[in-house]
């Protein structure tokens, strides 16, 4: 066998291997995505004609070649469940404007529900968890274009760090965004340093960590006061919910007006504010979100 023939055979083997690998990756990706949690609006809420839908975003990544390649090769939640690409985010904000959806702030929602127990019409509140750099760099300019208010919840002890697949914004970036956004931007606390799992369970939900969680909550408010000049009346659960012990503690905090969860649903009365439901926005949930808003 000549040297040239050996090269051809090796090339054919490499191409065949890469082709097989591509097919396998695509099949695994399709399987993983097909078995993922359904983020769509629950059927019981689809018939509601009045309410406030609180939308929850995490990342708004730019549509570059690297992001698209990784999206095609991995079922990673950070890219599929907790990310909306910038092009899609622009379309979503334009959709709200086109359909004349009333986008209100968290504070406006609280005031509205204090005045009457039921909501008339359909409203949207925009919220962002963690405050990574894509909020500052990608999402904020789009919302500024439409003059939309938004709430961003911050892990006060982790700013500027690489965390869970995202680059968190620094305090300098956050405060600059707050200055340029003014009253359109509200800040919530997302714990100080307890946004992590222990043996698959949110650390703050473990009973032995309850005292640490109470201290962590106090620290997060202290940091907020030092950095912004005031504490926050908004708490956002990491991982979406808390135990009854944690819930009872938060509900007795006199400064808190809203406790955000990731419970699927729509806000219809002020009774919801102690466990405020939100809709995670991603490619699988937007269809049901947009259908309800029409």
Automatic annotation (TrEMBL):
SUPFAM superfamilies xref list: Glycoside hydrolase/deacetylase (SSF88713)
Pfam families per the UniProt record, alphabetical: Polysacc_deac_1
Keywords, sorted A to Z: Signal
Keyword Secreted: no
Compartments in which it is found: Secreted
Major site of localization recorded for this protein: secreted
Entry keyword Signal: yes
Domain NodB homology: 122-294
UniProt GO cellular component terms: extracellular region
GO MF term list: hydrolase activity, acting on carbon-nitrogen (but not peptide) bonds
A single BP term in Gene Ontology: carbohydrate metabolic process
PANTHER family registered for this protein in UniProt: POLY-BETA-1,6-N-ACETYL-D-GLUCOSAMINE N-DEACETYLASE, PTHR34216
Protein name in UniProt: Polysaccharide deacetylase
Source organism of the structure: Secundilactobacillus paracollinoides
């Amino acid at each position: 066998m000549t040297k040239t023939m050996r090269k051809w055979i090796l090339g054919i083997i490499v191409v065949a291997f890469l082709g097989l690998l591509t097919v396998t990756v695509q099949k695994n990706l399709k399987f993983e995505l097909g078995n993922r949690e359904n983020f769509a609006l629950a059927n019981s809420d689809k018939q509601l004609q009045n309410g406030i839908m609180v939308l929850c975003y995490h990342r708004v990544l730019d549509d570059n070649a690297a992001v698209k390649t990784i999206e095609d090769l991995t079922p990673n939640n950070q890219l599929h469940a907790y990310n909306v690409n910038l092009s899609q985010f622009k379309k979503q904000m334009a959709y709200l404007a086109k359909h004349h959806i009333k986008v209100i702030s968290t504070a406006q929602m609280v005031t509205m529900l204090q005045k009457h127990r039921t909501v008339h019409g359909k409203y949207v509140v925009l919220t962002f968890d963690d405050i990574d750099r894509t909020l500052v760099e990608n999402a904020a300019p789009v919302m500024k274009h439409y003059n939309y208010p938004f709430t961003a919840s911050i892990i006060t002890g982790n700013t500027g760090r690489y965390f869970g697949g995202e680059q968190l914004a620094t305090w300098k970036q956050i405060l600059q965004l707050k200055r340029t956004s003014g009253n359109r931007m509200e800040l919530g606390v997302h714990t100080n340093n307890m946004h992590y799992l222990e043996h698959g369970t949110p650390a703050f939900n473990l009973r032995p960590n309850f005292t640490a969680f109470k201290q962590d909550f106090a620290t997060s408010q202290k940091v907020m006061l030092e950095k912004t000049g005031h504490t926050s009346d908004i708490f956002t659960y990491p991982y979406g919910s808390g135990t009854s012990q944690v819930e009872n503690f938060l509900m007795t905090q006199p400064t808190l007006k809203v406790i955000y969860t990731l419970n699927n649903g729509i806000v219809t009365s002020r009774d919801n504010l102690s466990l405020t439901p939100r809709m995670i926005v991603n490619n699988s949930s937007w269809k049901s979100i947009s259908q309800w808003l029409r």
